[in-house]
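Quick start: load a record and inspect it. Here is ABC transporter substrate-binding protein:
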Amino acid sequence: MPKRKSETRRQNMQSIIPLLARAAGVSLFFLAAIFTSSQAADYPSRPIKIVVAGPPGGGTDFLARLLADKLMKQFGNSVIVENRAGASGLIGTKYVKQAAPDGYTLIMGHTGTHAILPLIHTERTYDPIKDFTPISLIATTPDFLVVPANSPIKNFADLVARAKEKPGVLTYGTPGIGQPQHVLALRVTMQAGIKLMHVPYNGSSPAITDLLGGRLTSMFVTSAAIMPFIKSGQVRALAISTETRSKLLPNVPTLEEAGLKGLYQVDWLGLFGPAHMPAATVKTLSTAVMKVMQGAAIRHQISESYMDPEGTTPQKLTTLQADDVAKFKQIVEETGLKIN
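Running the structure step on this input writes:
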C-alpha cells in the first residue's frame, strides 16, 4: 500500500533535521570563534582587574600595584588592584578561577596560591595548573628567619638550643597556613629536630607588628616585607633561604651554613588568568608585561624592595610552576601538612 504524502514529508523532515542541526552547530562554532577573535583583537577595551589574594601592605600587594600602574600607562586603559584576602589566599584565588577567561580578571599569584595550597587541602579546591593560564613570572624573593633586635637569640644555634630546652614554647609567625614561609618553617624545624609553636597570620604586616611588639619569638618572612625592618635595626636576621648569601646582607648566613644541609627555598610571584584564555589575549598581556618589566624604573623599584625583577614568557612561568608543584608535593608528603 503506497505511503501517504504526509508520512513521506514527515520522514523527509526527520532526515533533514539532523543535517540542519549539524549545520547550525558548525555555524555557531564559527560565529563563536569570530566573536572570540574580535574580542581578543580589541583587548583591552575596558578596565583590567588584578586580584591580590591577601591584604594590602604585603609584598604581593606592592608588586601588583606597581605592575598595574605601569600596565595602565602601557595600555592607556584602567588597571585596578582588588584585595580579596582570607583562607591563606584561597578566597581570592578561587574567585579568579571562576572568572570569565577574557583577560579582564587576573591574579598576582605566588608559590603559596599556585603551588602549595591546593596540595595541603584535604578537599580539592582547585588545580593550580589546569585551572589557570600563566602569563608572566614577575619576581622572585628569598625568605628570612628573623627575631626582634632586642631578642637574646643571636643566631640560629641559639634558637635551636633554646627550643630544645623548651619544646613547643617558643613561637614563630608566618603570613598564613600553607604559605611558603610556613612550609619552610616546617622543613627547618624537622631538620633541626626542634618544636616551635606556629602562629599563622593573615599576611605579613600583622605578624611583623607582633614580632616588633615582642609577642612572637621569631618569624619566617619574605625579604620584601621584612628588609626595611632589618635595615632600620628593628629586627635581626638569623638566616636567609637562598643557596648563597645575599649581596645586600652579606653577614647573614644561609640555612645550609646554619647547619641545615641542602635546605634552600626561593619564592616567586607571577601573573595568571583563569584557564582557557584566548591565545591572542595571553600574547597581548605577556608582551605588554615583558615590555613594562624591561623598564629601568620598575626594575629599580622592585630591586629596592629586595625582590629580583623578572618579566618572562608564559612558558617560563609554566615550567617553574610545574617544577615547584612537583617539589612541594614531595615536601608536603614528608611534613604531613594537611588542613581541612
